[in-house]
UniProtKB/TrEMBL annotation:
Residues 308-315 form the Cytosol aminopeptidase domain. It comes from the Bacteria. PANTHER family: LEUCINE AMINOPEPTIDASE-RELATED, PEPTIDASE B. Keywords: Aminopeptidase, Hydrolase, Manganese, Protease. GO terms for molecular function: aminopeptidase activity. Belongs to the peptidase M17 family. This is Leucyl aminopeptidase family protein. The keyword Protease applies. The lineage of its organism: Bacteria, Pseudomonadati, Pseudomonadota, Alphaproteobacteria, Sphingomonadales. Coiled coil: none annotated.
Amino acid sequence: MSDKNSLIQPDRGQKATAIHLVSKDTFPAFAKGLNAAQRAALAAQKFEGDGYAYAIVPDGDHWFVVSGVANPDDLSSWCMAKLAEVLPAGTYRREGGEPGKAMFGWLSGQYSFDRYRSDPKEEGPRILLTKSVKAIDAVLAEAAATELVRDLVNTPAEDMGPAELETTAHQIAKQYRAEIHVTKGDALEREFPMVHMVGRAASRSHAPRMIEIECGDPKHPRVAIVGKGVCFDSGGLDIKPSAGMLLMKKDMGGAAHAIALAQLIMGAGLPVRLHMLVPAVENAVAGNAFRPGDVLRSRAGISVEIGNTDAEGRLVLGDALAKASESSPELIIDFATLTGAARGALGPDLPALMTRQDATAEALLAAGIENDDPAWRLPLHKPYAEWLKSDIADINNSHTNGFAGASVAGLFLDRFVGEGIDWAHFDTFAWRPVSKPGRPKGGEALGLRASWAMLQGRYT
């Protein structure tokens, strides 16, 4: 992405190319106001007002843009995103109204991940003007958080292991003068035994750790944000097929969401006492890898029989959720690329949301719809918990009947959240398999903006 702080600027009447937004219904009336040459230009480009379609129209010595949207009076985040991708570098202004939510898509549409390219594209910035000056900082912050998620997820596992997640957390903690604490080595084995066991087979450079950030006035409501940081998931001894490993650099997508949400909370000075926790591991194969049939100790004192080493994310989250619960937070939100079952049910675009309280689910779902970051609620159906029974331990980490995989994983996590704590769990894909305007193929923030909007509504 170009310097994001320059892509949205206050409109002070400076010279800019006009963008006219029309729908299929309003386009005929708009076209009547044009001269014959301009109508001919639209016809030559076969523009009829369809969504995401656009046309360049001559206007004396210059030109303007016409673009189709669903409803010019109710813009979505994405309706101007394609323009940000395809228009020439320059400064633009929406005619007849403000860009509103479309400012986010304008920023998001200019994102690119070119860290490994020898010839990165240099197309120059496309700047959008707005008179809503007070909205600029907020949309820049959301775009920066989304970019952070994308960058972290897109980076290959060799360059984005537990140590690199720790480095990112240190940078953000330093920026906002937050406290940071990292537990690893012998202390990790004592304090977070499941995190240690899942990650102990990785190389020394990718050694497991628990990363914690705390920030804010201790008198404010305590909010914990937890993210699954499995930086690569081979499946362990229950090894994945090669096709199943191709995207496993993204298995730390939950951690990326947690770090980005923490950045938003601290950057805005939200009046909460933030506690962010990221258990960072690589689920590798080696002689000391944990095994099917092993029984793991946990921080919560719950013994866990291993039915499948590829159900490792819930193990590291269990220790993190237990630690978060010890401080009796008012709310815990966790993010995890947890189950294929959620993707089978909801596809890549919709995170599965599970909560203990209906009001929390309703607030998150409404915030998602309002901010074009939708989720879909799945149940924490208590009777399914019996499928996690173990003959020799308190609980098994995997069930075998193949039913309700996302909900059963949620019920496993529920065992490690303190009694009476308001808790929300996002099973997110953190990846976009096909590009859409403003949403390139690759790492993606899904559930981030919904959570941020809900937190702002709840604590401001």
